[in-house]
Design a protein that fits this description.
This protein is mainly alpha-helical and 94 residues long. The protein has 5 helices and 2 strands. The protein has a domain of 65 residues: lambda repressor-like DNA-binding domains (434 Repressor (Amino-terminal Domain), Orthogonal Bundle).
């Protein structure tokens, strides 16, 4: 039996059910983080380009983060949360 899980390249097959659940949980965290970025950007009325300027990251990189396609480092999470004036823990809540 195979369980499908999502990684940054799309869907992959996993033989171990525990690995599949672990990958799914990681993706949920990325989705929650991405959703919090989109919501906060809308509240502050800033574009991805403006956020890119505030964080020193590229707009295309941030676009990937907002689509939950990127598994970003804690340093970049901190930069984004500072630019959006949010606590990191609040951005990771599902």
């Amino acid at each position: 039996m195979y369980i499908l899980y999502i990684n940054r390249r799309g869907f992959c097959k996993a033989k171990c059910p525990f690995l599949g659940m672990e990958k799914h949980a990681q993706y949920e965290h990325r989705q929650a983080f991405a959703r919090s970025i989109r919501i906060r950007r809308a509240e502050l009325n800033i574009s991805q380009e403006e956020l890119a300027i505030r964080t020193g990251m590229s707009q295309s990189y941030l676009s990937g983060v907002e689509r939950a396609e990127r598994n970003i480092s804690i340093d970049n999470i901190a930069k984004i949360s500072k630019a959006l004036e949010l606590h990191i823990a609040d951005m990771l809540q599902t």
